[in-house]
Amino acid sequence: MKILTLGPEGTFSHELALKLKKKKDEIVLLPTIRSIMAAVERGDGEGIVPIENSEAGGVGETQDGLARSPLFITAEMYLPVHHNLASLVSMKKMRVIYAHPQTHEQCSDKIEQWGLPVIHTSSNASSAREAKKTPNAGAILSETAAAIYKMPVIVRNTENSRTNTTRFVRIAREPARDRRPEKCSVLIDPSTDRSGLLHDLLEVFASRGINLSRIESRPSKRGIGNYVFFLDLAWTKKTPEALAALKEITEIKELGCYKKIEVKP
């Protein structure tokens, strides 16, 4: 099986793919989440993409892609994320830092203390490449990326929280076939804006004792003040009944019911 995930080598997505890879699997590194989803739609393989971080919140590109594509979430994985400041020069000589926007947000406390300007890049690996060719520059990246790009680590564990974790999902053209999944994800796209709508939507789950582990709004792309909602909910015997009741209130897209895959350290 082909595992499609974010490259180049040294990204956290690549690190996770290596941990999940089985003997006959092939890892294919692609430059963007959009390109991963397009490849999965073509049938090139299954994708692994980040969907939320404990510090920085939801990954908009993944959520927007799930909203517009016919793909399904078939599993979830959690990866502890630790960042490091790496450079070819000492901290005293450093004049600029390269970092991915999500990495910047996850390490904002330390970056604020250093008082150095930050240039955003498309990936942690790109940060390493830019820092290597820029005089007096540093990059915030994983220990794996620092080793791959031969950049000495100057400061370890630059993340704001030691429990910093990124949640990834596996995406495929067909839904998972688990008889007893652990979680379901749903996209709610309200066709009307009326008083009490959100209360009515949440009551569907509250009245059946179904726990919601996440609810997040995203712009619908149809104009200011127009939103869609992503919900993650626990699977119970009453979940199918709740989803059916939800469809009577509003338009929904079922993104899949699935299990958690444990990631080896």
Automatic annotation (TrEMBL):
Domain annotation ACT: ranges: 186-265
Pfam families: ACT, PDT
GO BP terms in the entry: L-phenylalanine biosynthetic process
UniProt keyword annotations, A-Z: Amino-acid biosynthesis, Aromatic amino acid biosynthesis, Lyase, Phenylalanine biosynthesis
Keyword 4Fe-4S: no
GO CC, any one term: cytoplasm
Domain Prephenate dehydratase: 2-173
Pathways per UniProt: Amino-acid biosynthesis
Keyword rRNA-binding: no
Molecular function as annotated in GO: prephenate dehydratase activity
InterPro entries noted in UniProt: ACT-like_dom_sf, ACT_dom, Preph_deHydtase, Preph_deHydtase_CS
Stored PANTHER family: PREPHENATE DEHYDRATASE P PROTEIN (PTHR21022), PREPHENATE DEHYDRATASE-RELATED (PTHR21022:SF19)
Identification of the protein by name: Prephenate dehydratase
The species this protein was found in: Methanoregula formicica (strain DSM 22288 / NBRC 105244 / SMSP)
